[in-house]
Structures are given as structure tokens and as C-alpha cells.
């Protein structure tokens, strides 16, 4: 059986990743492919339980190192119980965030360091990488407007952090993509959801060759 393909969508808050992940999964299914649409942190009962701890933390919240460990634990369960079984069964996996979010948020903006995050990923998830990572980039003013409309001033523990923190996240993502041009494709996330979706479908065309 042919192994499935693994596509991750990455980016900062308010870039439209979740919408585009759903659009992409629907487009792949329309081509006759079997698709697992999932998210991080989450995707399995155990990982969803950790998600609640991360986004609505007890007490005064987690430090960056504890946060990195929790994300790595959630991802390990997700990879072992959902992502790898789907790929090995020939299904495609579309994931809203994966390890590069940990590299940008905890490793970069949180100061844990990229080597530490990658080491956790090597242990917890055997270093699994997507076949393609789509980094959705949106102008800051568009992000601010989208977040105001989406959250109404009520953000989770990570989304509600300072503008400086999220600027560091964006810079970290940009650096990761520049260092690995074969693994990342940059997506212009400005414009309507349909316009962004068309750009994504052009970018994944090489992965679709021979599928239908």
C-alpha cells in the first residue's frame, strides 16, 4: 500500500490556518483521497486533555520549558495513535500546526531554543516531519482585525500574549522557512479564504501528481 502524504499548516495567530486546513481536506477528499483532518495540540483524547491544560492553564500558567514538554507529550500521543497509523494506511493527513509551531513559539519566542525542541521531538515523535509545511503569512494589520473579529477580546493563554511575543513568533517562523526552503512553502494569506485556498492548491500540486 502506498503511504499517505502529510501536510502541516503553520503560522501565527489569526492567519487563517484552521480555515485553510478544512478547505484543503475537503479539496483532497473531492479528488477521492482519504483524509485525516486534525490539529495540534490535540487530535487524540490524551492530546486534547493536554490542550486544555495548555490553553486554559491552572494557577499562573506554565513556564516555557514546561510548556515545551507538554506540547511534545501531546504530539507524541498524536503521532503514535493517529498520524502514523493514518499515513501507513494510505490516508493523507492535514494538520493544523505541528512541530514547527513548537520551534517558533517555545523554541524561538519562548527562549527554550531550537535544539531543545528538536531533541524533544526526536524522542517523543521519532523526528517525524511533514511531506510539506505550508507557512501562511498575513500582514500584521490584517491579523489584528481578524483576531478582534474572532476572539472579541477573549484569547486563550497563548493567543493572548503580548504583541512583542507574537512578533518574535512570526520572525521565528520566517527564519525556519528560510533555513529549510525544501520543506516549507510560503503562502500569501492576505485576501479572501477562497483566494488563499487557490494558492495552496497550486503549491501542493507536486504532491498530487499521480493521485487521480
SSE inventory with pairings:
Blueprint: E1 6-10, H1 17-30, E2 35-39, H2 45-55, H3 64-88, E3 92-96, H4 99-109, H5 114-125, E4 132-137, H6 140-151, H7 163-179, E5 184-188, H8 193-203, H9 205-208
Parallel strand pairs: 1-3, 1-4, 2-3, 4-5
> Total number of helical segments?
9
CATH architecture: 3-Layer(aba) Sandwich
Instruction: Please tell me what the overall shape is.
Output: globular
Head-to-tail CA distance between termini: 16 Å
The unreliable regions are none
Could you explain the architecture of this structure?
With 212 residues, the protein is an alpha/beta fold. The chain has one domain: P-loop containing nucleotide triphosphate hydrolases (Rossmann fold, 3-Layer(aba) Sandwich). Helix content is 55%, strand content 12%. It is built from nine helices and five strands. Strands 2-3-1-4-5 form a five-stranded parallel beta sheet, with helices on both faces. Helix 3 packs antiparallel against helix 4 (99-109), helix 4 runs antiparallel to helix 5 and helix 4 (99-109) packs across helix 7 (163-179). The longest helix is centred in the middle third of the chain and has 25 residues, at 64-88. The chain is globular and about 50 Å long.
Descriptive keywords:
globular; 12% strand; Rossmann fold; 212 residues; five-stranded parallel β-sheet; alpha/beta
